[in-house]
Design goal:
FAD/NAD(P)-binding domain; alpha+beta; 9 strands; single chain; 15% strand
Length: 252
């Protein structure tokens, strides 16, 4: 979406093709009304299906283009980390497989200026949204065209282009993979497994009392943890743990 805004600002007049697994772009961030006085209170959850039922009931069929729907979603998100941690690995993977993509779309809503750019480019007939996945990107060697790259999709479609932009996120982190291979840390679906105090867990289940992690590397261990207020709260938790440790060993 940021790329679309940049191209629109530069008065780009060429064709733009967006390839997305679901063929859906994120919804716009709406101007919310006042937030509820009380946060949503999650009941005890024992399975992935129960969690989906609770979320559906809480949303009350409100969609992502509804202000009240976005407010309710944020209320669900605020308290989801303890609920996520209470689920088994199998249920966490079920949730990630079935609604992970939808959660990401609802979670990372688009800024108004990027949505305006997308609408403008679409109305001018410059923007196409293709449902699919990229299999390979290669240099284009066709003498009859000046295209620079060829994009091949898993369904067999082939797209020639002058430029390509990849917006798939960070993916797997080589450092975390190495920590898992070296036996330094226990990984949970490619991410760090951490304790309630954000201490890194070893493969044998013990914890590194002096090793901490927060934010994206812990997402499969703690659930939805990305956001300024969440990161700030976790940083404060780590700081408190370090201060307590220093006091215990008589250094402060």
């Amino acid at each position: 979406m940021d790329i679309l805004a940049s191209l629109s600002a530069e008065n780009h007049n060429g064709q733009i093709k967006i390839i997305s697994p679901k063929g859906i772009l994120p919804p716009p961030q709406l101007d919310w009304r006042d937030q509820p006085e009380k946060d949503f209170q999650w009941p005890k959850i024992t399975s992935a299906s129960e969690m989906i039922q609770v979320m559906n009931k809480a949303m009350r069929a409100k969609d992502w283009l509804d202000r009240e729907g976005q407010e309710r979603f944020e209320q669900l998100r605020k308290g989801i980390s303890p609920v996520w941690r209470s689920l088994s690995d199998q249920d966490q993977m079920r949730l990630k497989k079935h609604i992970g993509w939808l959660w990401q779309l609802l979670r990372y809503r688009a800024a108004p200026q990027t949505v305006a750019a997308q609408k403008d480019l679409s109305e001018q007939g410059q923007l196409s949204l293709i449902k699919g996945r990229v299999k390979a990107i290669t240099a284009c060697h066709k003498p009859e065209t000046d295209h620079k790259i060829t994009v091949q999709l898993t369904d067999g479609q082939v797209i020639d282009a002058h430029h390509g932009f990849i917006a798939t996120g960070a993916g797997r982190d080589p450092l975390l993979t190495q920590m898992g291979s070296d036996g330094v840390a226990r990984l949970k679906h490619g991410h760090l497994d951490v304790s309630e105090l954000l201490q890194i867990t070893r493969p044998d289940g013990s914890i590194h009392k002096d090793g901490f992690a927060l934010g994206p590397p812990t997402v499969m261990s703690r659930g939805d943890v990305i956001g300024a207020t969440t990161i700030a709260g976790e940083a404060a938790l780590i700081a408190d743990a370090i201060i307590d440790h220093v006091k215990d060993v008589g250094l402060g």
